[in-house]
């Protein structure tokens, strides 16, 4: 591999540094808006149903031009094209990165190792659709002939967060007569709470695991099987009617005892955190139906095509990625808040945490050299109005730079009526008010003009200039969800490309897994585990003592 020039030595990087310490040393959004009457209209990018307003960011035309030069110098679009072509850009695992193929139309041709993968994708989607329809219609029955009324997804990480988030987002589109639960934690309490009020005869377990070796998932699935068999008189044949698997690993699925006919396949070129639009979305598809699921895939595809073809200056994921680079690498921002003004998006930020932090939480470059620039941010946030009464104080008046995305919709979901529907304007008024307050603050003179005593003035002053990006759409539909997720997927891609890291591996989670396996016998049987450090050994001893009391 040829050596990539060091990022921070590139002239495009040093020009950005000079720009930051020169004209943008003390960026002031009041001044920037005053100097540029067209800013609110110009700093908007549209993709699909999304209107993305980035006018409240600490940038000028010059900043944006310099950031674009950095993107060009680091060949973000070159890597993008390689990804779309199916090249093995996941270098440490020697894998293609083709989640975009999961939402490609039937007639598309995307090759991995000379094979067009699109027909395989659609064959699995068709199989999923048929199965989802059978469960939804009651044609697929449990072992005792009763129809399935409960679906329990067992998975973790990408095999949980995506389906669980999307189920929550699309609740108004779900079949309300079915109950859906998502179990991920190896804490037995998770499965216990999920099944305690369910009838095994009416319960379908969807075991989601790309590798089918993940200890949490296999442990929970094994316990779920015991629960099922205990409830159905112990007949092993029941498993075939109550368990399906979503995996890339047919061998392990069969070993577990799930009929390979009941397995829905995907492939190693789909990363776990990029997988809920693959077979991993089966429980979601059962919930919303195949048609809505395909609408969601079409939404993803709209943004894929935009990312692939839109010119740099109008390319939404590129712009969002560059803004993140600007704050992380030139303002020292450590985190990025995603603040949805929608109850249905309550799990969206948790989903993005894996997408962003597992992808870009890296400190070596693609060729193994260390980075000496910041990489991925800490992504955090909860629905906006709740956050306003909890942590927004720190965003407004604390000492940290926290760029934030505010996400909202013009219309509440159709299901709401009367007063609940009317509450929507109040919800959105909060979004707009927060964007305004964060950007423009309140000066000491404005506070004084309200007659506030002088000693109180500093406490009631808001310095403003907290950057936000506002993402608006008409309503939260399956397509819009797909668009939002693809937008963030590609934003993360852009940043990884510029930082020159492999956004598609996750070696950082391995060590903990190995150590947990090693420590477990010490907790369970009191086994002597050689090589425990003194602190952990003392904790293990304390645990065992407490356990016995
Ligand atoms: O531990 C990290 C991870 O590998 C994630 O990347 C993945 O989404 C999750 O575990 C679950 O993996 P699997 O789907 O193979 O069970």
UniProtKB/TrEMBL annotation:
<dbReference type="GO" id="GO:0005829">
    <property type="term" value="C:cytosol"/>
</dbReference>
<dbReference type="GO" id="GO:0097367">
    <property type="term" value="F:carbohydrate derivative binding"/>
</dbReference>
<comment type="pathway">
    <text>Carbohydrate biosynthesis; gluconeogenesis.</text>
</comment>
<keyword id="KW-0413">Isomerase</keyword>
<keyword id="KW-0324">Glycolysis</keyword>
<dbReference type="GO" id="GO:0004347">
    <property type="term" value="F:glucose-6-phosphate isomerase activity"/>
</dbReference>
<feature type="active site" description="Proton donor">
    <location>
        <position position="358"/>
    </location>
</feature>
<dbReference type="Pfam" id="PF00342">
    <property type="entry name" value="PGI"/>
</dbReference>
<dbReference type="InterPro" id="IPR001672">
    <property type="entry name" value="G6P_Isomerase"/>
</dbReference>
<dbReference type="InterPro" id="IPR035476">
    <property type="entry name" value="SIS_PGI_1"/>
</dbReference>
<feature type="active site">
    <location>
        <position position="513"/>
    </location>
</feature>
<keyword id="KW-0312">Gluconeogenesis</keyword>
<dbReference type="InterPro" id="IPR046348">
    <property type="entry name" value="SIS_dom_sf"/>
</dbReference>
<dbReference type="InterPro" id="IPR018189">
    <property type="entry name" value="Phosphoglucose_isomerase_CS"/>
</dbReference>
<feature type="active site">
    <location>
        <position position="389"/>
    </location>
</feature>
<dbReference type="InterPro" id="IPR023096">
    <property type="entry name" value="G6P_Isomerase_C"/>
</dbReference>
<dbReference type="GO" id="GO:0006094">
    <property type="term" value="P:gluconeogenesis"/>
</dbReference>
<dbReference type="InterPro" id="IPR035482">
    <property type="entry name" value="SIS_PGI_2"/>
</dbReference>
<protein>
    <recommendedName>
        <fullName>Glucose-6-phosphate isomerase</fullName>
        <ecNumber>5.3.1.9</ecNumber>
    </recommendedName>
</protein>
<dbReference type="GO" id="GO:0048029">
    <property type="term" value="F:monosaccharide binding"/>
</dbReference>
<dbReference type="GO" id="GO:0051156">
    <property type="term" value="P:glucose 6-phosphate metabolic process"/>
</dbReference>
<comment type="function">
    <text>Catalyzes the reversible isomerization of glucose-6-phosphate to fructose-6-phosphate.</text>
</comment>
<comment type="pathway">
    <text>Carbohydrate degradation; glycolysis; D-glyceraldehyde 3-phosphate and glycerone phosphate from D-glucose: step 2/4.</text>
</comment>
<comment type="similarity">
    <text>Belongs to the GPI family.</text>
</comment>
<keyword id="KW-0963">Cytoplasm</keyword>
<dbReference type="GO" id="GO:0006096">
    <property type="term" value="P:glycolytic process"/>
</dbReference>
């Amino acid at each position: 591999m040829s050596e990539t020039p060091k990022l921070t030595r590139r002239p495009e990087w040093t020009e950005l540094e000079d720009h930051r310490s020169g004209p943008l040393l003390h960026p002031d959004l009041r001044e920037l808006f005053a100097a540029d009457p067209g800013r609110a209209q110009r700093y908007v990018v549209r993709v699909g149903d999304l209107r993305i307003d980035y006018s409240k960011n600490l940038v000028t035309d010059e900043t944006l031009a310099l950031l674009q030069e950095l993107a060009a110098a680091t060949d973000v679009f070159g890597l993008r094209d390689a990804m779309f072509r199916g090249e093995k850009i996941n270098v440490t695992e020697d894998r293609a990165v083709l989640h975009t193929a999961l939402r490609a139309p039937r007639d598309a041709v995307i090759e991995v190792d000379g094979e067009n993968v699109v027909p395989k994708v659609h064959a699995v989607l068709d199989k999923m659709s048929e199965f989802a329809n059978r469960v939804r219609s009651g044609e697929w029955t449990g072992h005792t002939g009763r129809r399935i009324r409960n679906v329990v997804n067992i998975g973790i990480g990408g095999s949980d967060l995506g389906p669980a988030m999307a189920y929550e987002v699309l609740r108004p589109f779900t079949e309300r007569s079915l109950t859906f639960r998502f179990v991920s934690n190896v804490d037995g309490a998770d499965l216990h709470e999920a099944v305690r009020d369910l009838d095994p005869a009416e319960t379908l377990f969807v075991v989601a695991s790309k590798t089918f070796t993940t200890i949490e998932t296999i442990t929970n699935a094994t316990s779920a099987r015991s629960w099922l068999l205990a409830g159905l008189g112990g007949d092993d044949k029941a498993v075939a009617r109550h368990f399906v698997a979503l995996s890339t690993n047919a061998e392990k699925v069969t070993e577990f005892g799930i009929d390979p006919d009941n397995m829905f396949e995907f492939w190693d070129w789909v990363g776990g955190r990029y997988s809920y639009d693959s077979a991993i979305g089966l429980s979601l598809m059962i919930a919303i139906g195949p048609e809505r699921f395909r609408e969601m895939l079409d939404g993803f595809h709209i943004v894929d095509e935009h990312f692939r073809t839109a010119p740099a200056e109008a390319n939404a994921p590129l712009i969002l990625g560059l803004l993140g680079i600007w704050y992380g690498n030139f303002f020292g921002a450590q985190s990025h808040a995603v603040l949805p003004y929608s109850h249905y998006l309550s799990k969206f930020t948790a989903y993005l945490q894996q997408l962003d932090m597992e992808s870009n939480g890296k400190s070596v470059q693609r060729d193994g050299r260390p980075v000496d620039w910041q990489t991925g941010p800490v992504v955090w946030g909860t629905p906006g109005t709740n956050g306003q009464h909890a942590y927004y104080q720190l965003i407004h008046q604390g000492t940290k730079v926290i760029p934030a995305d505010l996400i909202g919709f013009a219309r509440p979901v159709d299901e709401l009526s009367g007063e609940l529907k009317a509450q929507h304007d109040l919800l959105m008024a909060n979004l707009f008010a927060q964007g305004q307050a964060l950007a423009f603050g309140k000066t000491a003179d404005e506070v004084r003009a309200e007659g506030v005593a002088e000693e109180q003035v500093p406490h009631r002053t808001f310095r403003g200039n907290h950057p936000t990006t506002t993402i608006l759409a008409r309503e939260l539909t399956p397509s819009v969800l797909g668009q939002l997720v693809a937008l963030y997927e590609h934003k993360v891609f852009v940043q990884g490309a510029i930082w020159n890291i492999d956004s598609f591996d996750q070696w950082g989670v391995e060590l903990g897994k190995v150590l947990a396996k090693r420590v477990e016998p010490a907790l369970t049987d009191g086994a002597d585990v050689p090589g425990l450090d003194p602190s952990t050994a003392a904790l293990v001893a304390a645990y065992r003592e407490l356990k016995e009391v």
